[in-house]
């Protein structure tokens, strides 16, 4: 099964230093044959202002339930990974079109596009 764009999956997301991974939700951004580009989703929300490369997914959002997330989370446009489609563990849900537009803007800012 190929993970589809806008879907949220549980994956072994790599740490920046690549010596370990952590099972966490991730948003599918693109598919390229057997590799999938994802953005990490994190449940620790900083107290200070959010960066323009982050998108908050609030429990108060109308479409929160369809994400499959358990609590308020951040999709981080600065936490990008490319993984084999074979390591995706479980589909959680889908991101709404409105939130996906925000993620696309955050990703463009992250990549200086």
Q: Any idea of the CATH class? A: Mainly Beta
Give unreliable regions as ranges.
none
Strand order of the largest sheet: 4-5-3-2-1-6
What is the residue-mean pLDDT, rounded to a whole number? 91
Number of helices: 2
Envelope shape: globular
Q: How much is the radius of gyration in Å?
A: 13 Å
Note the beta-strand portion. Answer: 35-45%
Query: Helix- and strand-based class?
Result: alpha+beta
Helix content: 10-25%
The number of domains is 1
Characterize the quaternary organization of these chains: single chain
- Compute the separation of the termini in Å: 31 Å
Considering the chains and any ligands shown, give keywords for the structure.
SH3 type barrels; 16% helix; 113 residues; six-stranded antiparallel beta sheet; alpha+beta; 43% strand
Task: Characterise the protein shown here.
The structure is a single chain. With 113 residues, the protein is α+β, with helices and mostly antiparallel strands. The chain has one domain: SH3 type barrels (Roll), CATH 2.30.30. The protein is 16% helix and 43% strand. It has two helices and six strands, in the order ββββαββα. It has helices at 64-67, 97-110; strands at 7-14, 21-32, 35-42, 54-57, 73-84, 90-94. It has a six-stranded antiparallel beta sheet. A hairpin with a 6-residue loop joins β1 (7-14) and β2. The protein is globular.
Detail the topology: elements first, then pairings.
Layout: E1 7-14, E2 21-32, E3 35-42, E4 54-57, H1 64-67, E5 73-84, E6 90-94, H2 97-110
